[in-house]
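Re: weekly structure request thread

Next one in the queue (156 aa):
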Amino acid sequence: MRTEISTAAAFVTRLLRAAGGIGEEQLRCFRECLQEALREHYKHHWFPLVPSKGSGYRCIRINHKMDPLIGKAAGMIGLSHERLFQLLPSELTLWVDPFEVSYRIGEDGSICVLYESPQPGGKMTKPLESRTSCKEEWRIGRSSPSKNCNMMTVSS
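Done, posted below.
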C-alpha cells in the first residue's frame, strides 16, 4: 500500500507543481498530508488478494466537486477548493489499487498507468480489458475503445 499511496500523492503533487505558484515546502507538506489521509482512508479497504475489491472506495475523483482527501490535504497548506480547481484538471480520476495506480484526465481521456507491480506469486495483474473494477465501469458505454498508456514515471 505504501508504494501505491506514495505514487498517487506524488502524481497530484506534480500536477500542482506544474501549475505553479506553490512553494516547494508547501508542496512537500501537501504530499505528506495527502499520503497520511490516503493511508487512513484505505486502512480497512485494501485487499491485496482481491485487488479490485474496494476499487470504487479508493477512487480519487475531481468532477466539478473536489475530492475530500485532496481538499483536506490542500487545506493543511492553506489552499482553498477554489484555488485547487484553478490548479488541477477539472476532471480527474485516480485509481489507487493494490499493485496498480492509474489515472484519467477528462471523461473521455485515456487511462494511463502510473505504477504497476506483480501480484504475490509472481503473476501480473490482469490485462486492462479483463478487469472487473471501477475502471471497467467507466469505459462501459464509450463510443470508441480507450487508448491505454504504458508506464509513466513520476518524480517527486
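The radius of gyration is 15 Å. The first strand starts at residue 59 and ends at 63.
Next request, please.
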